[in-house]
């Protein structure tokens, strides 16, 4: 019987069948995508609910549940903020110059290695490229030796404001140096694809190499500056390793150090820890949400 | 852009003496033979003109990267430890020869390799899966992509704190969910138990970095011409077979570059483990990056720490050098 029924199906029926099947795979597709959203957001969700709960609240409820009025509190946020305030200010103080400097130097280097052609470019470029993949552990001991040999605080004694922040200046220079390779590579791929006509025309009009950079290449590379600045900002803000090695005085603790210390000292106060984690992550999350596209470009270009 | 075509010709003519067109030589062509202009030409050569741009960044980077690698190698050949300064007179390979007998080095080395391989393979697979799902003409594509990539924007310090809470044996999300679906026997002390510690770390790192593999694969998928899909469809290939036979083979370049970067991430996973466990995560989860920090900065065995760092550097080099050589051969550099 069944076979007879099937043979009598019109073309329209069969098409409808297929559409239904198609819809089912679509439903499955969206179900998978949404399940994955749950997976990727679950640590953040658990952190967010916990940060708004009292101690009794996060012990007695699961992290999946939002806080009930009985256990709701914002005290963890206030406490974590007061502990990490200094770290936040210090991080802003050194991350912004380090980000801008490495992006600018990377752009200049990429220009010199792309738009002005000479033999041996590839050799120099490989040195930059290999620097991207360097595990920082392999330079850590010399880095510590170097910065303890350089008495930066002593040199800056004439300006106590700077001398007190010598650790942060060391961090700025260090992050700038190690950020140059990735910034150069990002700008280079952009400059390679850039149209040469304008540059050639400017050369003919007798513009200097610097004039060409300032008036043509720099303005044209502003979109790439956005990509590089966002990538570098996230990298430098998130780093813990260099800060562990280079920051010696408490007053110069950066935000990752404050958060690490908060986590160690308040091992059982999960609400405080979670609030602290969100406070430390806040600038990078904001930057990511606004400039997600540029961030994705940055990490994809890093390869 | 109006520029003078005659001046353009004259420039080209001067740079290339073989072209030797007479009409070009008329404007200042004779200068080229005089001695003084050789210096002038050098001054205007592209190499000299490019130096002010790339040399200062190259010097700063070179000092911190290559200078430091060399210095680190030198320190690893001394026997420097404690508070005094290193002595570079009596160099030997002693720090390296003692490694095989050091059980904590062997354990850290093994864990590093396990982390490297397992983390990279799983992240690639998940990333590929995500990319394929996202590439199926879905709505809200940007939103999904943004969410899957979000963990990459977070600091290791932040993610380590989140995951310590996720893995909490009594009220952590992982165990709450496992108990909720009736898998009580699986709900264990993930970070406390030495048998599951490394696996738990790898799982959390995969959560953080699979979005990266997704971005790379998505770019790879979008670069495949539509005609290839069409051809496979005409041949009657089903979805699964089409991906296996037609799409995956074309993603090998994306796979290689994503794998290299993921491996380097794994070698750098220090911050994450350090925040979770401090400088000593125990034999079961110790990796070379953490061991190096512990040996050098907590125990002041500077030379030994430098030697471990050199091994780490060589591991990174063995991953990156073939990759860069391959790119160079293909002319991608």
Strand count of chain A: 0
Instruction: Give me the number of helical elements of chain B.
Output: 16
Task: Enter the CATH topology name of chain B.
Answer: MetI-like fold
Structural class of the secondary elements of chain B? mainly alpha
Number of strands of chain B: 0
| Whole-number total of structural domains of chain B | 1
- Report the helical percentage of chain A: over 70%
pLDDT under 50 segments of chain B (min length 5)? 1-35
Q: Alpha-carbon distance between the termini of chain A?
A: 61 Å
How many domain modules of chain A?
2
Order of helices and strands of chain B: HHHHHHHHHHHHHHHH
Which SSEs are present, and which pair or pack?
The complex is a heterodimer of chains A (303) and B (333).
Chain A (H helix, E strand, L loop, with lengths): L1 H6 L3 H41 L3 H6 L14 H40 L6 H12 L7 H10 L2 H4 L4 H4 L2 H28 L3 H8 L4 H12 L1 H17 L2 H6 L8 H11 L4 H21 L1 H10 L2
Chain B lengths: L4 H11 L6 H4 L10 H9 L1 H31 L17 H4 L5 H32 L6 H9 L6 H11 L6 H8 L16 H27 L2 H9 L4 H9 L4 H16 L2 H8 L10 H11 L3 H29 L3
Helix pairs in contact in B: 4-16, 6-10, 6-13, 8-14, 10-13, 13-16, 15-16
Structural commentary:
The complex is a heterodimer of chains A (303) and B (333). Chain A is mainly alpha-helical. Chain A folds into two domains: 2-71, no CATH class; 75-301, MetI-like (MetI-like fold). Chain A contains 16 helices and no strands. Mean pLDDT of chain A is 85; it is low at 1-8. By secondary structure, chain B is mainly alpha-helical. Chain B has one domain: MetI-like fold, CATH 1.10.3720. Chain B contains 16 helices and no strands. Chain B has helices spanning 5-15, 22-25, 36-44, 46-76, 94-97, 103-134, 141-149, 156-166, 173-180, 197-223, 226-234, 239-247, 252-267, 270-277, 288-298, 302-330. Chain B is flat, with a radius of gyration of 28 Å. Chain B starts with a helix and ends with a helix. Mean pLDDT of chain B is 82; it is low at 1-35. Chains A and B meet through α2, α4, α5, α6 and α9 of A and α1, α4, α6, α7 and α8 of B.
